[in-house]
Every structure is written in structure tokens, then in C-alpha cells.
Write a structure and sequence with these properties.
One gap junction consists of a cluster of closely packed pairs of transmembrane channels, the connexons, through which materials of low MW diffuse from one cell to a neighboring cell. The chain has 204 residues and is mainly alpha-helical. It contains seven helices and three strands, in the order ααβααααββα.
Length: 204
């Protein structure tokens, strides 16, 4: 997948954001998107091939991997990045609607189509609520799917067709845990920025 579309979307939203919103865009683009593309994607690239169990029973390794990693971390992060960025499209669409309306009526209807006021303010607030909601949902989902944010070195599996309890080893657990902590921290930072911007706009 090319992440160019997401980059262009974030750049477009930056035009209509407040100061806090611009910080959010920078955090998503630099500390999440670039880290994901440059480093995190490669760490989990061969996670299935590097998952090893101390038994060669056909099918055992596969069912154990599926049990402990029901959804790939990296695919879930990709989905999270897409979901938290798409509400910003509401703002872009609303500005485009205003510009099209002015063009259709052939007169100036707004001081500036991109100025956050009236209907655009409501759209902006809704996009902030949706972004915050998606961030929280994905953090809870990560926590529930993987029983916390830690990556164990060793997991014990007794699911059929494994004949007994077998030891399975996860590759590069320390490196993976560092990246998980980093990405969870940036996700929490984005929640704080969204709530700060929401409070700023409401009280303003």
C-alpha cells in the first residue's frame, strides 16, 4: 500500500487546523506514519516464520500462532492509522462544499471557506470526537487481543493438534515491546491533543 494518500490528506487538513491540530498532524505524520513505514513494518514482517515451537507436529505451530496473534499487530496499526485519519476528511469535504457553494452562487458567502466557524466548527468538533473515539477503541482492542502491551519471550500452548503443552518462542520480543510502548505512547499523546483541542474550541 502507498501511504501517499494519507500524507496528502494530513497535509490538506493542516490548512484548516488550529495550532493544537497542527501539532496532532505532526505527531501522526512523523512519530506514527514514518515510524510505522520505516521501522515497525519490518520488525513484524516475518513474525509467523520466526515463531517457533519445540515440536514439529503438523499444524501445531500454526494454531498456536493464530491463538496468540489473532490479528497481526502491524495490520491492526495500519487500520488504526487509517481510521484515526479519515474523520479529518469531514473537514476537507465541508470546506470543499463551502467553496463549491460560493462558486455556484458566484458571490462571497463566507469570510473564508476554511475559517472554523458555524457549521464548519460543528464538523471539526465531530471529527475530533471521532478521532478520539477511534484511538480509545483501538487501544482497548490491542489490550484485549494480546492480554496487555507486553510481548512474552515464551508462551505455552496446549491447543489441538498439539499432543501436549508445548513451548513456543516469539522472535525479537524486546524490540517488539519497545515499539509497542512507543506506538501506544504516541496514541495516548494524540488522545490528549484531541481532547485539548476540543476543550480549546468549546471554551473559545
Amino acid at each position: 500500500m502507498s501511504w501517499g494518500f494519507l500524507r496528502d490528506l494530513l497535509s490538506g487538513v493542516n490548512e484548516y487546523s488550529t495550532g493544537i491540530g497542527r501539532i496532532w498532524v505532526a505527531v501522526v505524520f512523523i512519530f506514527r506514519l514514518l515510524v510505522y513505514v520505516a521501522a515497525a513494518e519490518n520488525i513484524w514482517k516475518y513474525e509467523h516464520d520466526e515463531f517457533e515451537c519445540n515440536i514439529k507436529q503438523p499444524g501445531c505451530e500454526n494454531v498456536c500462532f493464530d491463538h496468540f496473534f489473532p490479528v497481526s499487530h502491524i495490520r491492526l496499526w495500519a487500520l488504526q492509522l487509517i481510521m484515526v485519519s479519515t474523520p479529518s476528511l469531514l473537514v476537507v469535504f465541508h470546506v470543499a462544499y463551502r467553496e463549491n457553494r460560493e462558486k455556484h452562487h458566484n458571490q462571497k458567502l463566507y469570510k473564508s471557506p476554511g475559517e472554523i466557524d458555524g457549521g464548519l466548527l460543528c464538523t471539526y468538533l465531530i471529527s475530533l470526537i471521532l478521532k478520539t473515539g477511534f484511538e480509545i477503541v483501538f487501544l482497548v482492542l490491542f489490550y484485549k487481543l494480546y492480554n496487555g502491551f507486553k510481548v512474552p519471550r515464551l508462551v505455552k500452548c496446549d491447543i489441538r493438534p498439539c499432543p501436549n503443552t508445548v513451548d513456543c518462542y516469539i522472535s525479537k520480543p524486546t524490540e517488539k515491546m519497545i515499539f509497542i510502548c512507543f506506538l501506544v505512547a504516541t496514541s495516548c499523546l494524540c488522545i490528549v491533543l484531541n481532547l485539548s483541542e476540543l476543550s480549546y474550541l468549546i471554551f473559545k
